[in-house]
Automatic annotation (TrEMBL):
It comes from the Bacteria. The keyword Ribonucleoprotein does not apply. InterPro entries: TrmE/GcvT-like, YgfZ/GCV_T_CS, YgfZ/GcvT. PANTHER family: TRANSFERASE CAF17, MITOCHONDRIAL-RELATED. This is YgfZ/GcvT domain-containing protein.
C-alpha cells in the first residue's frame, strides 16, 4: 500500500533555542518584532538588521515556556547564533541549536496561521523528518509574492522595509529601540520605501536579480516602485505601492 502521509516537513529550516535570564528583554533590543506579541500559538516574523537597517537574517519567533525558539534557515543557524552571541556580553543567556523541525501545510487544522500572511498556510513545530515539503512551500509562497531567506533578501544588501516587512507584519513601530530601528522608522514615517523585493515571471538575470527559479518560471528582484514592470503585485502589497501619504 502506498504511503499517503502528506509532505509537511520543511527540511531547509532549523531551530535555535534562546534561554536564560530575561530572554525577551535580550531579544527585544535586537530584533524588529515586539517580543510582547510572541505568545503560545502566536509566532511572529522578525529580522535581525545591520545598524543601517539592512536585513541580515529573517526568522520566526516561537514561545516555548520561558524560552524563545527561532525558526530559521538551516544553513544560517550557526551564523545567526554567532551574531546573537556578540550582543550577549555578560548576560546569562544561552543560544544553542534545538532539536525538532518545522512543518507546513497549505490548509487543515494542524498548527497556526503563518503570521506574515494567512494565505501562506499553517505552520507548526514538531519532530524533524518525514516527507519534505520544501518545493510545494516555495511554489506556494512565491505565488503569493512573499520572499524570505538570504538567497532572496540578501545579507546587508536590502533595507528591511524593502523586503515588505511592514506589509507582512515583520516589524513593530511601537516598540523601543533595536538594531537598525532609526533608519527603518524614518523610512516608514516619511513613506520613503523606493524599492521593493518582488516576484516576477522568469527573465534573464540582471543586476537587480536576487534569485532565479527556472522550475517555477519565476525570478526575485529588487525593483524601484515606479519601474515594477511585469512584477506580480499581490493584494497585500498593492495598497502600499499607491500610498504616497506619510503614515501616522
Amino acid at each position: 500500500m502506498s504511503d499517503t502521509t502528506p509532505a509537511t516537513w520543511l527540511s531547509d529550516r532549523a531551530l535555535l533555542r534562546v534561554s536564560g535570564e530575561d530572554v525577551r528583554g535580550f531579544l527585544q533590543g535586537l530584533v524588529t518584532q515586539d517580543l510582547g506579541t510572541v505568545a503560545a500559538g502566536r509566532p511572529q516574523w522578525a529580522g535581525l538588521l545591520t545598524p543601517q537597517g539592512k536585513a541580515l537574517f529573517d526568522f520566526l519567533l516561537w514561545e516555548d515556556g520561558g524560552d524563545i525558539l527561532i525558526d530559521c534557515e538551516a544553513t544560517q543557524r550557526d551564523a545567526l547564533a554567532r551574531r546573537l552571541s556578540i550582543y550577549r556580553l555578560r548576560r546569562p543567556i544561552v543560544i544553542a541549536p534545538a532539536e525538532g523541525g518545522v512543518h507546513w501545510a497549505r490548509d487543515g487544522g494542524e498548527g497556526v496561521p503563518d503570521p506574515r500572511l494567512a494565505a501562506l498556510g499553517r505552520r507548526w513545530l514538531g519532530t524533524a523528518g518525514g516527507a519534505p515539503a520544501d518545493g510545494a512551500w516555495r511554489a506556494h509562497r512565491l505565488a503569493l509574492g512573499v520572499t524570505e531567506g538570504t538567497a532572496e533578501l540578501g545579507q546587508d544588501a536590502t533595507l528591511w522595509l524593502e523586503c515588505n516587512a511592514a506589509e507582512l507584519n515583520g516589524v513593530s513601530f511601537a516598540k523601543g529601540c533595536y538594531i537598525g530601528q532609526e533608519n527603518t522608522a524614518r523610512m516608514h514615517y516619511r513613506a520613503k520605501v523606493n524599492r521593493r523585493l518582488i516576484v516576477a515571471p522568469l527573465a534573464a538575470a540582471g543586476d537587480r536579480t536576487r534569485a532565479l527559479y527556472p522550475d517555477l518560471g519565476l525570478i526575485v528582484e529588487l525593483r524601484r516602485v515606479e519601474a515594477l514592470g511585469d512584477a506580480l503585485v499581490p493584494d497585500w502589497l498593492a495598497p502600499a505601492l499607491t500610498d504616497g501619504e506619510a503614515r501616522p
